[in-house]
């Protein structure tokens, strides 16, 4: 065996990686955390030079609540420097699927817990077991006080990197010193000699100090007495590096001046199946993230306008429920079936909290809106959560509306409206109404239903297979139930080169993670045998419903063409009964030299159009040369529940679902004829928009369109009363379009309001935020893809720049 380089050092990192949920439920994980921490404390007593490393503030919170005496022991070990706090996040989450704001909250709640209970924060990000890492994380890590990062997946066979130790640089220029763990983050054997000798193969001339992780993990356990005895024995072996009991902070301090390369990209690909596995948890996650952000905005506005108490504790508890269920084996869809009953309940708690907070805030405001009395009328106050004007379709269930009705705004101007199918099957007293609302930026408008006939001509030409307005002409393929043709009449461009929105079924014999796969391209068949019917036809929209079939499954798509919207809305319902198959929707764009752009957490990224399965947030865009004319055009696909996409040349694909055996992990081979449960059986629903556009996604403003689909207005039924507020008002405006306000809330220390801005196009800009509700105007520079957090102090004073945890003031805005 070759001797290690001179002065080589292995920093031996004693840890006990704990999955609080995976092949067990959280209650078992709860107990295992207690047992692992008890074992670590005992080892610390027995071995004076031993150091234990542990992450995840949520785990410590369980100990604090359930075993406060043990927590005090841990505090004492942290204070003496032998219990290393790492991670700084609530849990070790999936690092592709959460939103940018959810990653911020992982750090906000994690680091504030550490600061409050240990008097210090972590400086090393720590996600050894997460299945890939978004390229935008360096800025979020750095803004949360985490200057270093440790991970293991993807491994060298999945992602070639220039070095085990490197600077990881985000799109905004932020850098964190990053280390990829060699081979494994936990050990199963009692003697560590084989593991240590294997790690010596990773030493190089430029990096001669490495971290070598040890300790029983996954189901917890931590370092054993035998582990420590073998380290003590191997220290005397001259063929091995110096073995130093250490922690990640000591390691990074030792190598921080080493000349190492820079990596400026994502860390992919490991387990691409996790982007789509378990549609339920994916949908709950996105809904809860967005609902909490919206609830905070509305609660902050109600606090500023009416003095109502801001519900800090309720919102923090709800966020922590969401953050816990973003743990990588939950949100990735890889846990046992019963674990998702728990996840559903906890996401439900967060969603219910968001609903209660938003309703209380808006009812507080709408009660103070002047609503004049009109005999037989029904008034509604509609709130726009976005700081830009939005023209949106409003659907609302109501009672006591006559067959003939008119909806007017606060200026008494009629707006397009129609009746649609009610959720209630009763005598007709309950009706569902649809109308077009022009909403002011981060404000509201009052709409009133009047018992008067309103003659309106549908501006959409419609039949069972054809929809057409002044913007688009859409024709349905009667065989597949997809789109035979979509003509953009504004430019004369045919959007698709072949039938689109067809359900394609791919064979998928892989495990739940899809280990060793990069794409799903083994076609088993297509949905066909379609029927189509004109479902709605009115002045706001017309809808064709198509139902197609494959095997024992059905795919229902409602294609909606609005009179005055720049997109086609498609509401999808899938009743799925196939096994070891993937369902995709394909959109073959009429483009040449396309570029695929994906929304990722607080940013965007471009990727090759090679057909690989890719993680994304709410949208993917293909922009390129429109073949007939040679001009730049594009197509954005926006959705409210999915995270998995592909682009193959000019073919854009949305992965709707996968149905592997639940919690199946290679190398185990399922036995034919055995009784297994499969993912995503039964019915599910989601919505997507097709958004054809001139130019690129930046020209089209795709980020704002995605926000409008996924963060909907709120409708409050009202009554007649005088009030301090006008029938329509706006309380925040932001310009230009690439400056997006993602958060408006009370500060964690309740001494002002926090505003978070993100630059969405990759172009530096001077952002202007007008806040009539606070009587403030703010102008601040934003760099390309920069995240900036501002504190607007109570009682006046200049806005201050905060870090993402709100623990540090960085200067004036």
Describe this structure in words.
InterPro entries: Gal_mutarotase_sf_dom, Glyco_hydro/deAcase_b/a-brl, Glyco_hydro_38_C, Glyco_hydro_38_cen, Glyco_hydro_38_cen_sf, Glyco_hydro_38_N, Glyco_hydro_38_N_sf, Glyco_hydro_57/38_cen_sf. This protein folds into 5 domains: 9-270, Glycoside hydrolase 38, N terminal domain (7-stranded beta/alpha barrel); 272-361, Glycoside hydrolase family 38, central domain (Substrate Binding Domain Of Dnak, Chain:A, Domain 2); 378-456 and 713-717, Golgi alpha-mannosidase II (Immunoglobulin-like, Sandwich); 461-710, Golgi alpha-mannosidase II, domain 4 (Beta-galactosidase, Chain A, domain 5), CATH 2.70.98; 732-813, Immunoglobulin-like (Sandwich). Strands 25-26-27-28-37-34-33-30-31 form a 9-stranded antiparallel sheet. Strands 11, 13, 14, 17, 38 and 39 form a 6-stranded antiparallel sheet that branches. A 6-stranded antiparallel sheet has the order 24-23-29-36-35-32, with no helix packed on it. The chain is of the alpha+beta class. A hairpin with a 2-residue loop joins strand 30 (591-600) and strand 31 (603-607).
CATH topology-level fold name of the largest domain: 7-stranded beta/alpha barrel
Query: What's the overall average pLDDT, rounded?
Result: 96
How far from one another are the termini?
58 Å
Number of DSSP-assigned strands: 47
Give the gist of this structure.
Helices cover about 25% and strands about 35% of the residues. It is α+β, with helices and mostly antiparallel strands. A 9-stranded antiparallel beta sheet has the order 25-26-27-28-37-34-33-30-31.
């Amino acid at each position: 065996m070759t001797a290690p380089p001179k002065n080589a050092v292995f920093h031996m990192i004693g840890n006990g990686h704990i999955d609080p949920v995976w092949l067990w439920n959280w209650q078992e994980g709860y107990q295992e955390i207690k047992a692992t921490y008890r074992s670590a404390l005992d080892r610390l007593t027995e071995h004076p030079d031993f150091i234990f490393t542990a992450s995840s503030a949520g785990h410590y919170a369980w100990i604090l609540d359930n075993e406060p005496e043990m927590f005090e022991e841990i505090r004492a070990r942290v204070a003496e420097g032998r219990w290393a706090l790492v991670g700084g996040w609530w849990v070790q989450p999936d690092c592709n699927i959460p939103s940018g704001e959810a990653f911020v909250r992982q750090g906000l709640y994690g680091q504030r817990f550490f600061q409050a209970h240990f008097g210090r924060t972590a400086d090393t990000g720590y996600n050894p077991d997460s299945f890939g890492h978004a390229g935008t994380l360096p800025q979020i890590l750095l803004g949360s006080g985490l200057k270093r990062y440790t991970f293991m997946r993807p491994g060298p066979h999945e992602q070639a990197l220039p070095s085990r130790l490197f600077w990881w640089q985000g799109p905004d220029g932020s850098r964190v010193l990053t280390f990829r763990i060699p081979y494994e983050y936990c050990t199963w054997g009692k003697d560590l000699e084989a593991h240590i000798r294997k790690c010596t193969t990773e030493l190089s001339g430029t990096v001669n100090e490495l971290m070598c992780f040890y300790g029983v993990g996954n189901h917890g356990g931590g370092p054993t007495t035998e582990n420590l005895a073998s380290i003590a024995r191997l220290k005397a072996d001259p063929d091995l590096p110096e073995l130093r009991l250490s922690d990640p902070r000591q390691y990074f301090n030792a190598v921080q001046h080493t000349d190492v390369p820079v990596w400026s990209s994502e860390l992919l690909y490991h387990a691409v199946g996790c982007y789509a596995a378990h549609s339920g948890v994916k949908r709950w996650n996105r809904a809860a993230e967005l609902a909490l952000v919206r609830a905070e905005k509305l609660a902050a506005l109600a606090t500023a306008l009416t003095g109502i108490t801001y519900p800090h504790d309720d919102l923090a508890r709800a966020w922590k429920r969401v953050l816990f269920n973003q743990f990588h084996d939950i949100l990735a869809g890889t846990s046992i079936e019963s674990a998702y009953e728990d996840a559903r309940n906890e996401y439900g708690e967060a969603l219910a909290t968001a609903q209660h907070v938003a309703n209380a805030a808006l009812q507080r405001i709408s009660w103070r809106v002047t609503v004049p009395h009109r005999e037989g009328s029904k008034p509604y106050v509609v709130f726009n959560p976005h700081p830009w004007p939005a023209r949106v379709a409003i659907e609302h269930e109501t009672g006591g509306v006559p067959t003939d009705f008119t909806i007017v705004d606060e200026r008494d101007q009629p707006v397009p409206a129609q009746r649609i199918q009610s959720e209630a099957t009763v005598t007709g007293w309950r009706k569902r109404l649809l109308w077009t609302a022009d909403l002011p930026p981060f404000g509201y408008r009052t709409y009133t239903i009047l018992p008067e006939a309103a003659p309106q001509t549908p501006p959409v030409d419609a039949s069972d297979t054809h929809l057409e307005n002044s913007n688009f002409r859409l024709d349905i393929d009667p065989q597949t139930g997809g789109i035979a043709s979509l003509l953009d009449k504004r430019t004369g461009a045919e959007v698709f080169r072949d039938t689109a929105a067809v359900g394609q079924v791919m064979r998928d014999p892989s495990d739940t993670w899809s280990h060793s796969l990069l794409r799903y391209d083994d076609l088993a068949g297509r949905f066909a045998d379609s029927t189509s019917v004109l479902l709605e036809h009115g002045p706001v929209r017309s809808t064709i419903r198509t139902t197609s079939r494959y095997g024992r499954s059905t795919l229902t798509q409602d294609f909606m063409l609005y009179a005055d919207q720049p997109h086609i809305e498609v509401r999808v319902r899938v009743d799925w009964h196939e096994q070891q198959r993937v369902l995709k929707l394909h959109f073959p764009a009429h483009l040449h030299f396309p570029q695929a752009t994906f929304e990722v957490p607080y940013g965007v990224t471009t990727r090759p159009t090679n057909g690989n399965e890719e993680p994304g947030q709410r949208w993917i865009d293909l922009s390129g040369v429109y073949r007939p004319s040679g001009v730049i055009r594009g197509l954005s696909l926006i959705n409210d529940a999915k995270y998995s996409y592909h682009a193959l040349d000019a073919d854009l694909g949305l992965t709707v679902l996968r149905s592997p055996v639940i919690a199946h992990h290679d190398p185990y081979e399922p036995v034919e004829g055995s009784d297994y449960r499969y993912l995503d059986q039964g019915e599910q629903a989601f919505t997507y928009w097709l958004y054809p556009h001139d130019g690129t996604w930046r020209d089209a403003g795709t980020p704002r369109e995605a926000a409008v689909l996924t963060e909907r207005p709120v409708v409050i039924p009202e009554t007649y009363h005088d009030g301090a507020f006008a029938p329509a008002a706006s309380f925040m405006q932001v310009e230009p379009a690439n400056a997006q306000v993602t958060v408006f809330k009370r500060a964690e220390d309740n001494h002002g309001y926090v505003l978070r801005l993100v630059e969405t196009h990759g172009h530096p800009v001077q952002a202007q935020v007008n806040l009539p509700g606070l009587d403030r105007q703010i102008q601040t520079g934003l760099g390309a893809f920069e995240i900036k957090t501002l504190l607007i102090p109570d009682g006046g004073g200049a806005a201050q720049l905060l870090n993402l945890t709100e623990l540090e003031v960085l200067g004036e805005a």
